[in-house]
Design brief:
mainly beta, 241 residues, Immunoglobulin-like, globular
């Protein structure tokens, strides 16, 4: 009887481990409850429209052995008056509210990115902003949690550590998806409130896609779904000039 009980306990433990999602910062796996601090910032300037970004380089990974739906929550601990959190997993939002988003059909072993702080367009109240992120596979009670401290220092002399496989940017005529080392199949564009305003289904395996331009000037968020199931998010400025 004892041997059967031990075996059953082992099976249950293995199942719990397989149900987890984990947070990574770059290639480094974080422990549940870890706190990371981001000091570096980068500036994006598109025809005079300026925004400042602090990329946490934080990613979620599906650690289970099957395609899963993942729930991720953002809890805003504190923020500066000029700062807004970009929370862009599955869908995309910018703001200072607590939010919960669901990411569907994430393949086993795949990552999701999209945790940044943005100052735009008139900034000046830089400082320290803090958010806590909690994630779990839907149907599992196993959760992972990390805290990110965005401690603004300077945009000068920064070596960016952004390593995304792709880039989305706007020109006067078009929206460009540059994807030199990957294969993308779908692009969704969101406004800053999180409303999806454009969908693009891609065909072929091109290194660059020329898509219809977003006509209204402003900051937009995107989510690109790759052929292998990975999802990459980011932002771009659209200008009417």
């Amino acid at each position: 009887m004892k041997r059967i009980s031990i075996t059953l306990f082992t099976i249950l433990m293995v199942g719990a481990v397989q149900a987890q999602v984990s947070f990574y910062q770059g290639d480094k796996k974080l422990n549940d409850g870890d706190t990371i601090t981001i000091n570096d910032a980068t500036t994006m300037n598109d025809g005079g429209d300026v925004s400042v970004s602090m990329d946490s380089n934080l990613k979620l990974k599906n650690e289970s052995n099957e395609t899963s739906n993942i729930s991720c929550s953002q809890h805003v601990v504190s923020y500066t008056t000029s700062g807004s959190f970009e929370f862009c997993v599955g869908s995309c939002t910018i703001g200072t509210n607590d939010r919960t988003l669901t990411i569907s059909s994430i393949a086993a072993g795949k990552f999701i990115s999209g945790f940044e702080l943005i100052y735009l367009p008139q900034y000046g109240s830089f400082g320290k902003s803090i958010a806590t992120y909690t994630a779990n596979i839907i149907g599992s009670t196993e959760k992972s949690k990390v805290t990110v401290i965005f401690n603004y220092q300077s945009t000068e002399g920064i070596n960016s550590v952004q390593t995304n496989k792709l880039k989305v940017y706007s020109t006067i005529e078009s929206l460009i998806l540059n994807c030199p080392t990957c294969s993308a199949k779908k692009v969704t564009v969101y406004n800053v409130s999180g409303k999806a305003i454009a969908y693009y289904t891609l065909s072929g395996s091109l290194k660059e896609y020329i898509l219809p331009k977003i006509e209204k000037k402003g900051l937009y968020l995107y989510s690109v779904e790759m052929v292998d199931g990975e999802k990459i998010s980011g932002r771009f400025l659209s200008s009417t000039r």
